[in-house]
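Weekly structure sync, notes
Attendees: PL (lead), two postdocs, one rotation student
Agenda item 3: pending single-chain targets
PL asked that the sequence for the first pending target be pasted directly into the notes so everyone works from the same version. It is reproduced below exactly as submitted, 270 residues in total.
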Amino acid sequence: MSNQVDLYDSTYGNFQEQVLAEVRRETYGEDIGQNSWITTDEYDTFYSWLNLSAGDHVLEVASGSGGPALYLAKKFKCRITGVDINEEGLKTANQSALDANIPDAKFQFADVDQRLPFDDESFDAVMCMDSMNHFRDRIRFLCEWQRVLKTGRRILFTDPVVPTGPVSNEELAARSSIGFFLFVPLEVTKQYIQQAGLNLLRCEDVTGNIELTSGRWHASRQKHREDLIKIEGEERFDGLQKFLSTVHKLTSERRLSRFVFLAEKQVDQD
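Predicted structure, written out during the meeting:
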């Protein structure tokens, strides 16, 4: 896997670099430290679907550098536990929580391919933005979310690589050049949700956002090319530009689409 583009380590490691903050502003409109396809408007909408109150405890899976989780904690007064496998991201997240004086947000290491380090019925909601495609065993992981979620509460996740048209092997390779990817058809994910003891409430096509942000991200990086090459080197810069242009092409042609899933933990029927 030596040809993988190192998106996450290079991004989190240089997170405070001014040029990266500028790229985020130009990509998302509002920079909350995100590193996915999500804008604050979309995040607010998704959060409203979870039916949460102030003080409720949210688990954010693959929380990255923590920006979006801290945004939620601050805006909606919820408690947040973020989990990720990337040490640089966790370090940035915990430091940011400290700097922003948000004691209700904490971030810890968790390998999503293992059992989550939480008791049953620990959380009022589980969220995962644009990372579900990096987990190897989707059904097992949905079962884990179901386990740690309180009965009658909700999970929400996006999958940014749902096959909805013909895609070549070259395009799939370029789209998945940043790490492990699992491409799961829509109906299969719906089936998994049901098998995990969750009731699917909503499933919506939200490809428009990834089409918009991937195009902006590519254009902004191109604009700041010289500064970014100083941080990333030419090879990594070109690799990421190819990745982003592939994302934009496949989403604008609706051949790989992005969907959001909202589901609720069912009450035992016994």
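Discussion points:
- The longest helix spans residues 234-252.
- The chain has a mean pLDDT of 91.
Action: rotation student to compare against the earlier draft before next sync.
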